[in-house]
Amino acid sequence: MFFAHSVDYMAPDCDFLLATDADGTSTLTLSGVLTIAGVGALDHAMRREKPQFTNLDISGLEELDTAGAWLVWRLARDAGAQVVGAGEKAERLMSAVKCCSGDAPIAPPRAPPMIRIVETVGLVMIGLWQGSGAILSFLGALICALGNVIRHPSRIRWTALVRQTELVGVDALAIVGLMSFLVGVVIAQQGAVQLQQFGAEIYTVNLTGRISLRELGVLMTAIMVAGRSGSAFAAQIGTMKLTEEIDAMRTIGVSPMEALVLPRVMAAVFMMPLLGLYSALIAIVGGATISAFTLDIPFFNFLARVQEVVPLIDLWVGLIKGPVFGLIVAMTGCYQGMQVKGSSEEVGLRTTQAVVQAIFAVIVIDAFFAVFFSEVGWI
Amino acid sequence: MNDLAIRIEDLENRFGDHAVHEGLSLDVRRGEIIGVVGGSGTGKSVLMRSVIGLQTPSHGRIEVLGHEVGTPRAPGEADIRSRWGVLFQGGALFSTLTVAENVEVPLKEFYPDMDPELRHEIARYKVSLTGLPDNAAAKYPSELSGGMKKRAGLARALALDPELLFLDEPTAGLDPIGAAAFDSLTRELHETLGLTVFLITHDLDTLHEICDRVAVLADKKVIAVGTIPELMASDHPWIHEYFGGPRGRSALMARGGEAQDLGAKTHGLDSPNPAKA
User: Fold this and answer.
1) Are A93 and A160 contained in the same domain?
2) DSSP secondary structure string, A21-80?
3) Is the minimum CB–CB distance between B54 and chain A shorter than 8 Å?
């Protein structure tokens, strides 16, 4: 919660006394301090005792606030009693609080769980259907924008493109490098443990080299770029949508597709294969490093052996997948950003969705690629 | 009990090299509505944040309701935060809770033993006390208009029956009718509940309508405090411009004052002013 601690001081008390007269009128007399700090205790006592009375004497109250006035008024209302001895302030407070009818719900009604489950499933399905339509039309708009820019090359936003290239590619070098190095270390080390059982630890080189170039380099990089840049695209464009910057662009005649989306998508498409290649190379270096320590394969021998055992086709497979993954990641990020409307809460929601969808789509497409390449014989 | 609700002495707030406040002092009396005005960037909000403890001043001393802000409270003393209520500019309602649940948050925090039924009742009457319809209690902040959000924020600020109420630009972004209604609500609650109100505003109508005194922030300090007629007698250029400018004059005209008199500078702040507001 947002307060650091709860209350630990003693609330001043309110005392009550029930007395019945000879003529049948019973009076509940309150005395002491009846403020927000004390209403809870008095309310508990009244709920427990359920006293019946016809008069409620509050002349003995030294202090009263609106919470106290509300409780006094409600006790009197529920018992059908009359409030006596109210001072000018008490009257004023009670007339202020009794405007409330007091039975309005405090939360909107909720449907029973079964209905809500069915409803949610239905809404998700409709969302999926409409979402796939919307992303297709987004892709269409992107292609149109690309066509426009190709016909009028002067409209390419070079500054934005270079800036995005720097953000997506150059700035990611450190983190992608570190990640790839460690992944290479893990593959080589774990692979060696298994292969040693057959006395085939020399195949660690094949394992590390081929898996890095063909699969892991570009896949891990795509996941990293989705987390770093896809989310940033969604958040930036989403915030611009909220602050009406994108509407402002449209009214000036600048196409947000050309000015915002295209540079980002192009940067991701250009940088993804380069980052993927870089990642694969660093992973091989990582594998070579750990092999030098644990397998007694000298570092440069490992690298030389990679050249012998890894076919060139693996490099092409990795390089072909790169731009596709870049397109998916950047397009999902920009699309989700453009979908933001209403509140700032939506920016967070859409950013999360952008990352989740991008990673999911990348893995699905990667599986398709794996099947495709083995079918065409590029093994 | 001392009769000052807030005492600020020699306050200094610095962000890097940039000093927002330097040697700022201000006293707020109990039971008054004090308006704080100043140009953009003169640190009105920073001042409020310092008073409510969200911003630690680089130097100086702030006492609120007899308690020095930023020091641990004495045993047996009520938490100072249960004795004030704050309305932030946008309402700052918790977006995942309904209006009534928002009002219940401070109640739950400070009085966890309270019966839930009583808590709901308190939340309901606070909501209607701030002029919202009964059905607003079950609505989420995203379903409310700007004016309703402010009222709901006010209901939450009033949840613990505070002695002191902080309002940060309560009428900013409201239409004139909504702003006038909010002004009269503030005045009404001030009179009914005996609140001390610390009000940051740009709205000249609000100043004329509900403020007992006005503090003017300029040159990193409070340059003048007083009733509006007293301030109008000042010859500080900013104050003169503020109250004597076209908007200041029309706000005064709306109150039946004589705008022409504003042009004539009088002597000091303490002198009685012929142009009565």
Assistant:
1) no
2) -TTS-EEEEEEEEESHHHHHHHHHHHHHH----SEEEEEEEEEE-HHHHHHHHHHHHHHT
3) no
CA separation, residue A126 to residues A118, A224, B187 (Å): 12, 30, 50
| Tens of pLDDT, residues A164-222 | 999 999 999 999 999 999 999 999 999 999 999 998 888 999 999 999 999 999 999 99
Closest residue in chain B to residue A2, using alpha carbons only: B109
The boundaries of the domain holding residue A55 are 14-97
pLDDT in tens, B50-102: 998 888 888 888 988 888 887 877 776 778 888 899 999 888 899 889 999 99
- The answer to whether residues A181 and A43 belong to one domain is no
Strand A26-34 and strand A14-20: the pairing is antiparallel
B274 within domain boundaries:
no
pTM: 0.77
Closest CB from B127, B140, B160 relative to A36: B160
End-to-end CA distance of chain B: 33
Q: How many CA atoms lie within 13 A of A221 on its CB side?
A: 40
Residue pLDDT, tens place only, B23-32: 899 999 998 9
CB pairs below 8 Å between A and B: how many? 113
Determine contact, residues A104/A80, Cβ cutoff 8 Å: no
**Do A173 and A263 fall within a single domain?**
yes
> Of B101, B109, B115, which is closest to A1 when you measure between CB atoms?
B109
Look at residue A132 and tell me if it is in a domain: no
Tell me which chain A residues have a C-beta less than 8 angstroms from the C-beta of B81: 3
Return d(Cα B167, Cα B175) in angstroms, integer: 18
* Number of compact structural domains in chain B: 1
Nearest to A168 by CA among A322, A4, A299: A322
